[in-house]
User: Fold this.
Amino acid sequence: MTSIDTRSEGTVAARVNELTAVFERGLQENLGVGASLGIRLESASEGRTRYYLDPNPATINAMFTVHGGVIATLMDTAMGSAVFTTLGDGVAYTTLELKVNFIRSVTMDGSRLTCEATAIHVGRRTATAEARITDAAGKLIAHGSTTIMVLQPEK
Assistant:
């Protein structure tokens, strides 16, 4: 069950547009995780995001599998963004806690990783979200949760 304060359609659309613009700018200017690791935003709506990553040489570790930190980064990005879509104008956020359960390793075999995240609770001071990462065959790669600090604008 999801407990998210309902925001006006305009606010949700503004957050989704802002999120999309930030990622597009990062790609154009070669900034951020999207550019450096290949994390891409596929879709966003109120309290939900979907990102993907095509494993590449920048994402692997010494065992030639996708580094756990990259998987955690994909998940953290998706969960934070899911919460962001529910926040009002001028409200920011930062991750307080991140929990990732790794289920299976991922090689560079061309299998796209997809991360779907959902905001579970968004309050005035904290928020929580959950995410799942699957491979192209739909196999679960990792799942996790986050606690996020909601940063209200100074008055």
Residues 60 and 66 are 4 Å apart (CA to CA). The helical segments are 9-29, 32-37, 68-84. Confidence is low (pLDDT under 50) at residues 1-7.
